[in-house]
């Protein structure tokens, strides 16, 4: 199917571009480019276009991309000045590319309304005159969506527009369209975001259409005036719209109610937007409730009737990750093909089709959050059907990898400490067909490899699949100073003065209000002493000699083992540096009531607050959990049990000075006015570094240094015993994998069936295929120990064998009382367990009480197929019928019994009437 489709699309592009649809006239070279793009070698490229914390903006959000009729790419985004918030000082910014997305012009500002919000870009081009319309939304920067909706804001959210007549080089002043396109009682409104369309069918051909909440905004006079379409069913927003090949309009919206459906909301209009169908939901379009993008591959009136649509969103029901593009060949009725563009955190997106047939996707994503940056991916249709030679992950025992690993990026920097001599590398891929090499030597997925890096400038890792090769070049930087440990309480050294600082920096911990060090508690480091704090007594620990704990704008890290007795309040403070209140220098870490870990920071001179929290449930009462909070340049990071669990969007580190000399730091104490959020439970191995710990550092704090033993995985099979013989199951089988690792804990389990791709184990494996299935599985612990691959053979036979009996004769003649030899042909087959035996179980004749008088040489209970039958009728001339029965049995114990008959023909004369036994 794939090669045919690619060839078909190639010829379609060749014909359509030569026929001036929709990008204007094109010569042979353009047609050749389109043919190559659609039907050539798979192509995929991905670059970072807008990066948080650069070009004067805290965060970039809400991507929109438009390909103009002259082939210029216009990439719009919101430039959020001071935070990642949806409100505040937000500008609309633009980057242009004149060469299909390889080179991009510098960032330009399209809309800047001072401290107010100008966002939600939605663009469309009028092909009749080339004018590009850009719709946007405005609200006061200090008005939140809640305040606007409940009527307590200064203003409402309004729709504006601007236009460009020179392919986006310059733009008109934005115009307020509120009175034209918004009912007077609407307080919150929004266009798109992404792109609009221009109709190619029907009486309103040429109409400009901009999707908005609950309806479209339309113009039939090339933008001179604008008005609203008919309204669709409520409870949707962030709309997209396409025109189908028969002129039907199809909306694809995000849910604002019924969110538990986790699907896209679809509605259609057969009268060009005057009325709309009831909303329905497409099963394939799973969605974590987020904006998405849809676009035609060819115009709705293309001469070949192509119905190819493309759809992009984070293909996940629960979290914003796994940016995926899907293909529909039938105007959105089905979506049979999908390919992941970016497997990490991702959110909003915008699709476009380039003049040469390539596809562009502008989307939000990142290694830490979905909003770290906006990337531009460019690929062709051939890429959808191609396997790719790339790794899923690269893990290093030392250092910090930058950027966060992504399979399509080839160049990285691994920052190591001074004097590092060796690094253990673990490549990971789910495609078992990929051959891996590390520094020219074969390597295996999931298998650690130690490399001597002394004197090595770059580390080369190669992934090879067939003729495809991808090389990852890791620059080694070994100049980073080692972590400076400022405070370390292991609670094993306690005297009358308090808890000793084993880092030797004099940070004695003064036990207050019943805080106590208790012996004999079992925790991940074995038997030892721990700190116990009682929130009802406001127990806490003062840190003495805190002069070197004022970090200013420098990096720092906090780490501890925690075990809460209760999580009964909004939050329970682990550490608080600085004074309480807003707009004062401070940082603190807590465990929230829902089991999330939180880290907050306020800094001067902007008095800006940065706060992040992990998903809920990571910390549980009565269980030990390792947590670490890290400030690293312009990011906050939280690790739980050695793994990165949350990060902030990038911020301006120079504007986040947290020094507060007059406020002593406390462990386990809430400095807020309510004073009801103290720690309640135990702590152990508490550390503070004047340094941003690397991921490998945090992992080592979580792991036991002595852990050299791999985890042990056991397979529990249901049914617990085979239902058949010889170890064969006679029903479907479910396999549950359980893992034990008493030291560093289990980091992950994976499995594969019959040598296929390795998959992460997420629940019981169901095996229903008949025959022999080999299940392989292994686990990895927190120390990086990988278990030897274990095997489980599952033999399943749910079917009876097939048996065919064919005698060499159906009739015996004449009935002359002579012995007649009979040969029986046997054809027995069982595709699962195979035939165990075929035996003769009986030879009988009607009306014959003594079988020995009618059959000779038949060995009952064996596989005998040769014997003799008496050629005789029964007394009284009755026809004799011999019944010969065989039983086939397979190795699983299933049986099939078949009977064949042989008749003795009757003699119809007087003498024979008295013939008999």
UniProtKB/TrEMBL annotation:
GO terms for cellular component: cytoplasm; membrane. Belongs to the glycosyl hydrolase 33 family. It is an enzyme of class 3 (hydrolase). Pfam families: BNR_2, Cadherin-like, Laminin_G_3. Keywords: Disulfide bond, Signal. NCBIfam families: barrel_OmpL47. It catalyses: Hydrolysis of alpha-(2->3)-, alpha-(2->6)-, alpha-(2->8)- glycosidic linkages of terminal sialic acid residues in oligosaccharides, glycoproteins, glycolipids, colominic acid and synthetic substrates. This is exo-alpha-sialidase. One of its GO terms (biological process) is ganglioside catabolic process. The keyword Signal applies. Its EC number is 3.2.1.18. Residues 554-696 form the LamG-like jellyroll fold domain. One of its GO terms (molecular function) is exo-alpha-sialidase activity.
């Amino acid at each position: 199917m794939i090669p045919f489709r690619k060839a078909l699309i190639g010829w379609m592009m060749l014909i359509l571009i030569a026929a001036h649809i929709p990008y204007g006239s094109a010569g042979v070279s353009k047609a050749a480019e389109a043919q190559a793009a659609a039907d050539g070698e798979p192509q995929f490229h991905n670059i970072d276009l807008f990066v948080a914390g650069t070009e004067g903006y805290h965060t970039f959000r809400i991507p929109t991309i438009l390909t103009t009729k002259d082939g210029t790419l216009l990439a719009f985004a919101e430039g959020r000045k001071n935070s990642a918030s949806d409100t505040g000082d937000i500008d609309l910014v633009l980057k242009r590319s004149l060469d299909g997305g390889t080179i991009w012009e510098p960032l330009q500002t399209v809309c800047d309304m001072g401290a107010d919000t100008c966002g939600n870009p939605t663009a469309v081009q009028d092909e009749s005159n080339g004018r590009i319309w850009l719709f946007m939304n405005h609200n006061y920067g200090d008005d939140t969506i809640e305040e606007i909706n409940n009527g307590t804001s200064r203003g409402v959210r309004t729709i504006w527009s601007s236009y460009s007549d020179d392919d986006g080089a310059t733009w008109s002043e934005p115009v307020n369209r509120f009175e034209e396109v918004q009912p007077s009682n609407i307080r919150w409104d929004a266009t798109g975001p992404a792109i609009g369309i221009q109709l190619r069918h029907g009486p309103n051909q040429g109409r400009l259409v901009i999707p908005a909440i609950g309806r479209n905004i339309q113009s039939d006079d090339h933008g001179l005036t604008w008005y609203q379409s008919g309204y669709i069913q409520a409870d949707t927003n962030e709309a997209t719209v396409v025109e189908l090949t028969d002129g039907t309009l199809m909306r694809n919206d995000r849910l604002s109610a019924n969110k538990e459906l986790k699907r896209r909301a679809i509605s259609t209009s057969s009268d060009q937007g005057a009325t709309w169908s009831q909303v329905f939901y497409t099963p394939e379009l799973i969605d974590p409730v987020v904006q998405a993008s849809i676009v035609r591959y060819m115009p709705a009136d293309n001469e070949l009737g192509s119905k190819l649509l493309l759809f992009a969103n984070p293909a996940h029901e629960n979290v914003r990750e796994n940016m995926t593009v899907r293909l529909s060949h039938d105007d959105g009725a089905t979506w049979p093909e999908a390919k992941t563009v970016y497997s990490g955190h991702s959110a909003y997106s915008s699709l476009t089709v380039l003049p040469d047939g390539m596809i562009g996707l502008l989307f939000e994503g990142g290694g830490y959050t979905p909003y770290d940056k906006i990337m531009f991916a460019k690929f062709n249709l051939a890429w959808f059907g191609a396997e790719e030679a790339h790794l899923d992950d690269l893990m290093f025992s030392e250092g910090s990898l930058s950027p966060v690993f992504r399979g399509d990026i080839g160049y990285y920097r691994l920052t190591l400490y001074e004097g590092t001599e060796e690094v253990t590398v673990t490549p990971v891929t789910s495609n078992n067909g990929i051959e891996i090499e590390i520094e020219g030597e074969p390597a295996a997925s999931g298998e650690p490899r130690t490399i001597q890096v002394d004197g090595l400038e770059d580390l080369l890792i190669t992934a090879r699949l067939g003729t495809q090769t991808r090389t990852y070049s890791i620059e080694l930087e070994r100049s980073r100073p080692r972590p400076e440990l400022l405070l370390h309480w292991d609670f094993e050294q306690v005297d009358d003065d308090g808890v000793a600082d084993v880092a030797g920096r004099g940070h004695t911990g003064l036990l207050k209000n019943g805080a106590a060090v208790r012996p004999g508690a079992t925790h991940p480091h074995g038997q030892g002493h721990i700190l116990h704090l009682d929130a009802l007594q406001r127990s806490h620990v003062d840190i003495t000699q805190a002069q070197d704990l004022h970090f200013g704008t420098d990096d720092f890290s906090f780490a501890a083992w925690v075990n809460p007795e209760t999580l009964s309040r909004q939050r329970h403070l682990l550490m608080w540096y600085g004074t309480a209140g807003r707009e004062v220098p401070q940082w603190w870490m807590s465990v929230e009531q829902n089991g999330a870990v939180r880290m907050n920071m306020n800094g001067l001179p902007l008095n800006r607050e940065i706060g992040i929290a992990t998903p809920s449930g990571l910390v549980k009462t009565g269980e030990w959990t390792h947590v670490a909070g890290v400030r690293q340049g312009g990011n906050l990071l939280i690790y739980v049990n050695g793994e990165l669990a949350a990060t902030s969007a990038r911020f301006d580190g120079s504007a986040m000075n947290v020094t507060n000399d007059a406020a002593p730091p406390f462990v386990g104490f809430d400095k807020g006015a309510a004073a009801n959020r103290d720690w309640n439970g135990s702590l152990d191995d508490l550390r503070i570094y004047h340094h941003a710990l690397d991921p490998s550092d945090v992992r080592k704090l979580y792991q036991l240094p002595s852990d050299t033993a791999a985890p042990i995985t056991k397979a529990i099979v249901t049914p617990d015993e085979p239902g058949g013989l010889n170890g064969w199951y006679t029903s479907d089988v479910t396999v549950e994998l359980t893992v034990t690792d008493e030291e560093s804990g289990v980091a992950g389990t994976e499995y594969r069936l019959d040598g296929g791709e390795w998959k992460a184990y997420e629940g019981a494996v169901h095996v229903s295929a008949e025959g022999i299935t080999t299940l392989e599985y292994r686990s990895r612990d927190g120390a990086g120990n990988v278990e030897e691959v274990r095997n489980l053979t599952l033999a399943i036979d749910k079917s009876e064998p097939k048996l065919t009996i064919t005698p060499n004769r159906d009739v015996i003649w004449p009935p002359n009382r002579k012995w007649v030899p009979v040969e029986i042909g046997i054809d027995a087959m069982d595709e699962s367990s195979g035939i165990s035996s075929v035996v003769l179980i009986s030879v009988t004749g009607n009306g014959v009480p003594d079988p020995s008088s009618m059959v000779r040489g038949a060995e009952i209970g064996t596989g005998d197929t040769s014997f003799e039958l008496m050629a005789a009728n029964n007394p009284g001339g009755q026809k004799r019928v011999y019944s010969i029965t065989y039983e086939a049995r397979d190795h699983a114990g299933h049986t099939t019994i078949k009977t064949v008959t042989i008749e003795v023909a009757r003699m119809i004369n007087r003498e024979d009437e008295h013939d008999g036994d």
